[in-house]
């Protein structure tokens, strides 16, 4: 059930039980002699099904220096915040200590006077909130990071201003809104909603759903709910994750406006359905947070999200929209919902990848070349576990998963065709270290915080800058270093320049010729958003040839039928089937 998954998720990070997997650890820790290593590396490239001893899985872990936060206020409407390393946090994950993200300029804009940014927890959290402070410390959080100081300042301003936040992946946006939210909620709701018993009215104080955190996927909702619980544990705030079980409890409680919930974490489809069914209302909702806002107000979710935002009509409503990316179009749309005195906060370069991720592009020639490259990179120890591998469709995720299983990898696959229970289980096993690799679709590109990931592989070239930034942002989180390898083939040529430019702007090395490629046309960009490049199967030539044969056969049968019809004859027995499956790539947008 979700609660156990949540506990694991809330612990964050894919760390290994080193005792349990001691044998494997010894096998991969590089203790073996070199000649043995080399022999096994050859084995894997030959697809032997054995694991190469030379893989340096778990061998390396990022450690970073200490940190401190400095705030510089400029005379104009811009506020600069710098965060340098100085003090180490006491996270309980020994392999992946939390460190501050690198120093980055923070720009605040909006009508004057702009709210001030906070520099430390002491400024934000009154000492009376000892439980909150204890929970933060317990989670290894002893310092306020740049984005958190800025967002707290904006959210806590007494004018109740809306906030738009664009800050890099892994920079701590979740706590940036959860902390001020907890402080603003102040006293817990006076009506208690118990998912198992039904709501019970205590008095006529503040009631309903006081705040909503909306996110695009179930996995992210689980993770954020975990963060909410960690932050608020020991307090009497009522929190709820809207999922099947709690949804049923709400539905049978028949208390639409009466639910006493302080923080509700939900995905758009479920929340919208509950509102439509009259099982939930937003009359009491003061705070609406849209995490991954550009995705939420994009075409896939807009039909559900728009009525939710429009329904946020509390007299003292405050909206906060956050993402690591916010292109001009979505930003213009977002602004239509934000109050005129809204504050815009941008950390670092807008729409840029995290500066702690080193990015590489690798030409692979063909689909077969990509599979070979992956095997070689594994064998060469370039992909220390845990590794996240992105592909562009469900079909391809299943194919690559099969290939890696055949190679003897401890691999899982997560995509929208799997049940939520299956997805939760696989993610949990990955976090626990039982799985070394996860083949995933776009579904897993946003928000998920796997602390131990050092490398992300874009097996299939991402179709938009946003997708690239979010995918590679699963590595190099919270100030730790990481890297991303993006494979490309000739098919990806037209979009190569765009990604090369993104890489260059974040200080990574790119071949000059890539920057001189023609710009992708507007039409192509549009097309890419709608549908990814069509690719040959992952498994190589065999399957493709079989498919080609089938296609030729179909064409021959069709031609023969036409001839017969023309000559007045009867149709061929069995006729041409309308067998689909031409391998059109499907973008996995499932919730
Ligand atoms: N002040 C802090 N001190 C120590 N660790 C922190 C602090 N703030 C956040 N973290 C940790 O940093 C990691 C990244 O934070 P978070 O998931 O909020 O990033 P994000 O900016 O939302 O990224 P994304 O854009 O990918 O969703 C988490 O593991 C979180 O626990």
TrEMBL record:
Pfam family, one: DEAD
Coiled-coil zones: none
Low complexity biased stretches: 59-70
The species this protein was found in: Filobasidium floriforme
Catalytic activities: ATP + H2O = ADP + phosphate + H(+)
Protein name: RNA helicase
A GO-annotated cellular component: cytosol
EC number: 3.6.4.13
Keyword hit for Lipoprotein: no
Region called Disordered, residue ranges: 27-112, 521-591
Domain Helicase ATP-binding: 154-344
Record-stated family: Belongs to the DEAD box helicase family. DDX52/ROK1 subfamily.
Start and end residues of each Helicase C-terminal domain: 356-518
Gene Ontology terms for molecular function: ATP binding; hydrolase activity; RNA binding; RNA helicase activity
Entry-linked InterPro entries: DEAD/DEAH_box_helicase_dom, DEAD/DEAH_RhlB, DEAD_box_RNA_helicase, Helicase_ATP-bd, Helicase_C-like, P-loop_NTPase, RNA-helicase_DEAD-box_CS
Feature: compositional bias, Basic and acidic residues: 71-83
Basic residues bias locations: 522-533
Residue stretches of biased makeup (Acidic residues): 84-96
Keywords: ATP-binding, Helicase, Hydrolase, Nucleotide-binding, RNA-binding
Superkingdom of the organism of origin: Eukaryota
Broad class of enzyme this protein falls into: hydrolase
PROSITE patterns: DEAD_ATP_HELICASE, HELICASE_ATP_BIND_1, HELICASE_CTER
